[in-house]
Amino acid sequence: MNIINARLRGKEGLFRVELDGERIAAIAPLSSPSNPAVGDLDAGGNLVTAPFIEPHIHLDATLTAGEPNWNMTGTLFEGIERWAERKATVTHEDTKTRAKKTIDMLVDHGIQHVRTHVDVTDPSLAALKAMVEVRDETRHLINLQIVAFPQEGIESFAGGRALMEEAIAIGADVVGGIPHFENTREQGVSSVKFLMDLAERKDLLVDVHCDETDDPQSRFLEVLAEEARIRGMGARVTASHTTAMGSYDNAYCSKLFRLLKQSEINFISCPTESIHLQGRFDSYPKRRGLTRVAEIDRAGMNICFAQDSIVDPWYPLGNGNIMRILEAGLHICHMLGYEDLQRGLDLITDNSARTLNLGEGYGIEVGRPANLLILSAPNDYEMIRTQGHALASIRNGKLLMQRTPSRVERC
Ligand SMILES: [Zn+2]
Questions:
Q1: Lower Cβ count inside 10 Å, N or C end of the chain?
Q2: Cα(241)–Cα(361) distance, rounded to whole angstroms?
């Protein structure tokens, strides 16, 4: 299969991308728009990119909003209560069915790489076992990384450490944590040391729910970054949320940024979820409840956007479309300046790939996997402005999905 009349990010002109089986075989410039041969896909002058990435989602909780009760206040705390009611009725098949339905929604929007956090503060580890099966059964659609996520803590949950070890033994790919939720500062610090030891010992990636609160005293990011720096593991470590950074004062932040840069860790922000759940203890002025996305980016550090939730007790909306998150995030983070719009897709493609350590398994380059998208616009700016879509998603050289753009007829 070949794709003709493709525009590539960062390059001038049109290209023909040749696929040979499961690899990209050649990328050749075209002197003028060419006519498709039989079996060719015509990008029509639009962008061809590597697949979109969903780097932070909770597939074990998706599609449960309103079951049995809706979150009436929309707060994080009522969400936890509503989830406790739903969690009591979760079964193996129920988890798998909802996760697969959600994966289909992601695939429909051009996503082929997903990192999901799975709650392991459950002595049966039922959701984790279900998700390990889902990972195998959906390999033709996505690459799925599973994070062992201790929703109720490692140190403050009975048997928390043993459950983390067991989750890794069962097949989780990434070590998670939630230090700001532990009962004390000391437990938060020791949970980070424990999870970093575990990841180092098992040679695994790390992704911690870190300081997901408006409390400016929640300062576990410095602990995570320092542990990553000392161990030389930064590129393999991710701090998710870090929303407290939006409430840190500038003096502390300037010192913190020196450490963050040295540590080389990655960041994930979930802009729609955070603006919805944070700022809830404020009257006015009301904080946005996000981490310092633009500042992290400007400082040369790696940050990407994620959806976090789709129709669950914490967030009632969502449809799998990561472009929606990108658009909201750029607004919320004051990133609609010219330069940001020229490279906006970085936040849902290349930056996310670096976070997930996809390496040479990602990107439009000869020899890499034939995983790519045809988008509905010729550049990042137009893709964002027009609320564009992935029109085709190709995986291992085969079409996964094609979308017909909606048509308007003037009368
Ligand atoms: Zn999360």
A1: C
A2: 26
CA of 146 to the centre of ligand 1 (A): 12
Q: Which CATH number fits domain 2-50+363-402: 2.30.40.10, 2.40.128.630, 3.40.50.10420, 3.50.50.60?
A: 2.30.40.10
111: phi then psi, degrees, rounded to nearest 5: -90, 130
The length of the chain in residues reads 411
Task: Provide the CB-side half-sphere exposure for 160 (13 A, CA).
Answer: 23
Q: State in Å: Cα 319 to ligand 1 middle.
A: 17
The residues spanned by each domain of the chain are 2-50+363-402, 52-361
Tens place of pLDDT per residue across the chain (411 aa): 899 999 999 999 999 999 999 999 999 999 999 998 998 999 999 999 999 999 999 999 999 999 999 999 999 889 988 998 998 889 999 999 999 999 999 999 999 999 999 999 999 999 999 999 999 999 999 999 999 999 999 999 999 999 999 999 999 999 999 999 999 999 999 999 999 999 999 999 999 999 999 999 999 999 999 999 999 999 999 999 999 999 999 999 999 999 999 999 999 999 999 999 999 999 999 999 999 999 999 999 999 999 999 999 999 999 999 999 999 999 999 999 999 999 999 999 999 999 999 999 999 999 999 999 999 999 999 999 999 999 999 999 999 999 998 899 999
pTM (predicted TM-score)? 0.97
For this structure, is 212 an active site residue? Answer: yes
Instruction: Choose the catalytic residue: 212, 227, 273, 327.
Output: 212
CA of 69 to the centre of ligand 1 (A): 21
The rounded distance, in Å, linking the Cα atoms of 125 and 228 is 28
How many Å lie between the centroid of ligand 1 and the Cα of residue 56? 6
Question: Under CATH, which number does the domain 52-361 receive?
Answer: 3.20.20.140
